[in-house]
Design goal:
5 strands, Rossmann fold, 54% helix, single chain, 7 helices, alpha/beta, 184 residues
Length: 184
């Protein structure tokens, strides 16, 4: 059993890993730090859904509630294809720092749940932060829980987003949909 701080990008991505970690006997708190999520209304919807879930389940939610549009753009516009690496590094380091400051044994992230994220990059950044902050990095490949998380979050009536969060991924989603519609 460990006292873990788990970075949560949103409640739907947290629900299945949370249940699994809780059943394994871990003491959990969630960490909200997502300066990549845009626009502001989307950011607020995801944060509020996570707040509701933490209240319902009774786990601590630590919030670094900082809408970071300007900083995110400043750090990604010069190399848009590398935006995910910036995003992972920023959020994982924020989580590890908060875990160290909060007296947690270790940390993890719901980024490891998503089938759409760069899994190996997330692991690499997490291992770097493990060394830097002298914490355990709790690794589990939660991608196999993908369908279960969708089912659970829908059953709970959670707000479910349709893109990872950054404005570039939202643009890609609409561009792909437009291209599909044109080809039909």
């Amino acid at each position: 059993m460990a006292k873990l701080l788990i970075h949560a990008c949103c409640a739907p991505c947290l629900i299945a890993p949370y249940i699994k970690l809780k059943e394994a006997g871990h003491e959990l708190a969630a960490y909200w730090f997502n300066p990549n999520i845009h626009p502001l209304l989307e950011y607020q919807k995801r944060r509020n859904a996570l707040r509701e879930y933490s209240q319902k389940e009774g786990f601590e939610l630590i919030e670094h509630d900082e809408y970071g549009l300007v900083e995110f753009l400043h750090n990604t516009l010069s190399d848009i294809p590398a935006r995910c690496e910036y995003c992972y590094r920023t959020r994982i380091e924020g989580t590890a720092r908060a875990a160290a400051e909060g007296g947690f044994d270790g940390f993890s992230s719901t980024l490891l749940y998503s089938r759409y994220q760069k899994h190996e990059d997330i692991i690499a950044f997490s291992r770097q932060m493990r060394e830097k902050y002298k914490l355990k990095f709790f690794y589990e490949d939660w991608r196999q829980l993908w369908q279960e998380g969708i089912r659970l979050s829908k059953a709970a009536g959670m707000y479910r987003q349709q893109y990872c969060g950054c404005i570039f991924s939202e643009e890609e989603r609409y561009r792909e949909r437009t291209q599909r519609n044109k080809s039909q």
